[in-house]
Amino acid sequence: PREAVISLQNSKLTSYKQYVAVQNELTKAYYELRNTYTINVLNKSADNLTKEELKQVKEAYPFILSEAETR
Predict the structure, then answer these.
(1) Pick from 32, 29, 52: nearest CA to 42
(2) Which residues are registered as beta bridge partners of 67?
(3) Consecutive H or E run containing 16
(4) What's the angle, vertex CA 56, arms to CA 55 and CA 62, rounded to 5?
(5) Do the Cβ atoms of 66 and 6 come closer than 8 Å?
(6) Chain center to CA of 46
(7) Average pLDDT per block of 10 residues along the chain, 71 residues long
(8) Strand pairing partners for 68?
(9) Residue-wise over 31-58: b if at least 16 C-beta within 10 A, else e?
(10) Whose CB has fewer CB within 10 Å in the chain, the N or C terminal residue?
(11) Residue 19: which of 71, 64, 68, 63 has the closest Cα?
(12) What is the value of pTM for the model shown?
């Protein structure tokens, strides 16, 4: 996961609503991955993390997104 990059392509015809919907789904997916990590690795809920633990979770599952517009 530390080296994973999500590549998102859209066209000029992509509506803003559709673009935001995809972004939201990606964000939810990362939230689920990070939540699973906190439970399985840190034995805590995501709501009870310290700043250091939150940093650890974000380092384990960084949200790296590459966006490109198709021609």
Answers:
(1) 52
(2) 8
(3) helix 16-40
(4) 80
(5) yes
(6) 15
(7) 81 90 92 94 93 94 84 65
(8) 9
(9) eeebeebbeeebeeebeebeeeeeeebe
(10) C
(11) 68
(12) 0.78
Residue 61: Cβ within 10 Å count: 19
Distances, alpha carbon 55 to alpha carbons 36, 58, 63, in Å: 15, 5, 12
Element holding 54 (H helix, E strand): helix 51-60
Amino acid identity of residue 70, one-letter, is: T
Amino acid 49 reads: L
Place of tokens 């990362």: 30
